[in-house]
Amino acid sequence: MTPKWKVLLLLASLLLVAGSALGDELFMGKLGYQLLSPSGTLAGNSGSVGTKVDLDKDLNLDNSQNLTAEIALQWGDARLSLNYLPINFSGTGTMTLNGTFNDQSFAVNDVVKSEININLYDIGFTYFLVNLDDLPTRIQLGLELAVKVADTEVSFKDSTAVPAISETQSATVPIPTVGARARIALSDYLGVSGRVGYMEYDGNHFTDAEGQVEFSPIPAIGIYAGYRFFDLKIDESDLFVETEFSGPFGGLLVRF
For domain 3-140+150-214+226-250, is the CATH number 3.40.50? Predict the structure, then answer.
């Protein structure tokens, strides 16, 4: 078992222990599948200088298809959540421009193999300003503070260049976001929820928005499906990534 999954299991255990002391706890766990399509640019910088290449036109990156996991604990008007999403894009493309990646030169028509790997950790706290649960329809609307940690690695391999290029750059960037979360549900059987968060911080920015439908034919077990959009910019001294990812997701949920 990898360290990141051990962390998720440990946090889930802690949430369950904490929840057992609360009278009106609500624990939710989700395991799903996320499909994401990429667009944007990246550059491997040397001395803050590098050529921006297009993810689609130059690198021909494939879609990312990965499992995603979320755990959440709600007590009263407060909600604490942890979401983990691995994002992996790879492809082989033909360069449409001359330039450099980490001070290594490439040329038009060079064939490049590249990968973008992002481990995205999302820790969020929501306080519901509206939390109506004594009506046939439950309505929740609140402010959400979150920290997105993007552990990013980019590889760029050009075997047709002279000399050949094989470079890897990485950066781990924590970006706090401020946003809102809302949910409208008919008891626990059918619900529609959405969230959005944004922050620009130290030359980096992150926008995260999603909407989903939850259906629980059995009170404690259900399914969910939705659509998610990311706008991520990482501008560090040795790595520049400015991308948009979007796509559908779905999976299973448990709650008690």
Answer: no
